[in-house]
Amino acid sequence: MLLLSLLASNFRNCEQVKIDFNRKANLFFGENGAGKTNLLETIHYLLLARPFRGSEDQELIMFGRNHLFLRGVGEANKQKFEIEVGLSFAEKQVKFNDKKLSRFSELFHHFPLVSLAPQDTEIIQGAPLLRRRFLNTLLSQLSPLYFSELLAYRKILHHRNRLLSDFKDGKISSMESLPSWTEQLVSSGTNLLLERTRIMPILQKKVKTNFQEIFATKGEFILTYLPSFSFDYPERIKEIFSQEIQKKQSLEIKRGLTLIGPHRDDFLLKLNNQNLQIYGSQGEQRIAAIALKLAQAEILGEKKGEAPLILLDEVFAELDKEKSRNLLKSFKSLGQIFLTAAKEEEIPETKDFRIFYIKQGVVSENFLKL
Known about the structure:
This protein has a six-stranded antiparallel β-sheet, covered by helices on one side. Strands 8-12-13-3-14-15 form a six-stranded mixed β-sheet, sandwiched between helices. Strands 9-10-11 form a three-stranded antiparallel β-sheet. It is an alpha/beta fold. It has eleven helices and 15 strands. The protein has helices spanning about 35-50, 105-110, 120-125, 130-140, 145-170, 180-215, 235-245, 250-255, 275-280, 280-305, 320-330; strands at about 1-10, 15-20, 25-30, 65-75, 80-90, 90-95, 100, 115, 220-225, 265-270, 275, 310, 335-340, 355-360, 360-365.
């Protein structure tokens, strides 16, 4: 996949930006606060219609303006495409090849995209929710069916939890519908678990290789999937899930909460048999997060038959030269990349890049002295 050009109006501190991109590598230079990360977010919002950094949509509109507009031209599946996104305080509209989209989630499957920023270290350091989110994102990018099943599971889980909670709090006196919700939860959850167990060996192998190559170490790196209940064979997931949730039912009623299922899963990363979340250095955790994102990009490229577009925000700032060279080589081999840096010396090699300088939201291919 390629993004060839971008037009942006009133996006954060960028009043008007028009850029033609290099097909391989694009580098945005600028001091902190200049707007270079905003350009990555512009690309992310253009292609997925959702913010890069967890913001509310309306926060993206330039202060003092009442709307923003984005237009991009690119290539996907060897076909040219044009996409437009318009956002006001009242509504959001997306057009893909002049067709208005009613479901923005369609973009998620059209455009394989991987983003990496310093805060992604939280995938390693943070709560299981963040690791499940990483896994769900990867699988949803690979399969619209997984994405639909994930939405269905969350809806079923919400209703089942509400039923358990209302009974616990004395708001209802009967739970006659609990068996029905349990059956639906097991059925939907089994489909999610099957897809997770299929992708994990591939993810494990790639993350291990990436970590060792970027870190230039022969240390033993292991990624282990931790489902909320144990099963020996994928074919037995539904049977065991059903048995285990029945065992937990009295405790679930007491606590008013569904206690097992894919919403409680996690995965563990170890280096030399030590849990990286607890014992890993900040540098090791950072490289592990990078290795996960690189694996995501590799899997997307292999499974979809098309290299994803990659956004790298301040990724090289805290890496030494050797790790920076290893990382840059890995990402450049995958497809088109967009990255930011505050200093040119952070990037080990820029001869193949189109370089853009950003200052106060203004973009130029010449150094800006504003």
